Known about the structure:
Strand order of the largest sheet: 2-1-4-3
Largest sheet: 4 strands, mixed
Low-confidence stretches: none
Structural class: alpha+beta
Shape: globular
Number of domains: 1
Strand content: 15-25%
CATH topology: Bit1
Amino acid sequence: MLIRSDLSLPQQLVQAAHAAHEAGRHLAERSPVLSSLIACALPSERALFEAYQRLTFRGIRCALFREPDLGHQATALATEPLDRDRSAVLSRYPLWKGA
């Protein structure tokens, strides 16, 4: 999961939940048993779009959430469940610290 850190902390939490919900709705058919969740932070909408493009280019399905109350800005994304090897692509992004 990738979350924009330029939003307020409450918004970050809500947007992460929205993205997880969207991923569950759209990406669940191939979902293995969930063993962990990785939450990463991105500084802006532009960085989120770049990550989305990078992940989808690598064949990773993503659910990008756009917040209607923020002018439909992209605020967070969640990937399909990833095994250990495929989740390595997320190592380039800093972990979300909730600050």
